[in-house]
Input
Amino acid sequence: MIIRDSIEVNERVYPAPKVPAVAICLDGCEPAYLDAAIADGLMPTLKRMRETGTDRLAHSVIPAFTNPNNLSIATGRPPSVHGICGNYLYEPETGEEVMMNDVRFLRAPTLFKEFYDAGARIAIVTAKDKLRALLGAGLKFDEDRAKCFSAEKSDSSTAAEHGQEKASQWLGMAQPEVYSAELSEFVFAAGVKLLAEWKPDLLYLTTTDYVQHKFAPEDAEAKTFYEMFDRYLTQLDAMGATIVVTADHGMKPKHLADGSPAVVYAQDLMDQWLGEGAARVILPITDPYVVHHGALGSFATAYLPQGVDQADIIARLKATAGITLVMDKAEAVMRFELPGDRIGDIVVISGENVVIGTSAHRHDLAALKQPLRSHGGLSEQEVPFIVNRKIDMPSAPILRNFDAFFYATTAAAL
Ligand SMILES: [Zn+2]
Output
């Protein structure tokens, strides 16, 4: 039970919800997916939410990647506050690339922790396990107050570490394959069961973009996915919770007419210009799950050698076909609210249908079974933001996906 009227988290004030406040992050949900499925009559509940609730577009965090956006939704603030600006961090002192999915990289408390400390009951279900530790940071798990588990490792969740013993058994659903639509379905099904039987004050459901990387909005497989989501959304909505449906980022085709990926290999360019290995290009999309995107996204950062003419490198990159935006660190920190100590000297963003790679030989394009779809840049920052209540709310660019719990709790306090 929450004992206060409001809870302050990272300098934002959230009203204490009177009914469960639910945020759903549909990974890679370009707004067109919803439009296509609704047009076919496959999402009656979401269609009704749009008509009788509040329907907006919001902007994601740049880089338009999964972890920065999920942590922004979890903290209510941009990466400059919480510190997570990608999956990878390059440490120039050691020359090492380090995964940024460890809790020690998180610089701000999540609103789950702050609500928990105020007495609230918290449930978080993720598709992939990579997000679970970050989202659950600071929670003390027990089956009464806090649960945070992933579909990916649902066979091995424990009461002590996840607040849920053997989640797959509890749900009555087999632990899904990591590359599957079922991984997301598990998240929705767990959300329905938690809301029905456990009544969390805050519930966060976050899926995987496996389907969106493979299929375009008009593809049957994508439509089936959103039809499945709507069935669970119907059940969540019927239980009286306030629900915000948003996304971590959009998704765009990034390939040429022949189906091969449209890539600018930035490390190869820098090697030509500055000498082999003099600059270091970092692709923060890189993670252990590369099968569906080949570590190719539309955002890169680069560390340049000392004494190099930065303006000249920026000008050359700007003149490269497919690159739409290049800026120095100071501008990137200000414009995208990024932590300056965790990005390189320059930031490079490619266009709607182009991705950035390091060196051609370092990307295993054979692993890509379908024409590449990916994200990361400005062309994937527009995401849906739909609430199942009528509520006074701005639209993009003012509205951000990380306002999800602000509006979910605001609606839940009415
Ligand atoms: Zn994502």
Remarks:
- The longest helix spans residues 220-238.
- The mean pLDDT is 95.
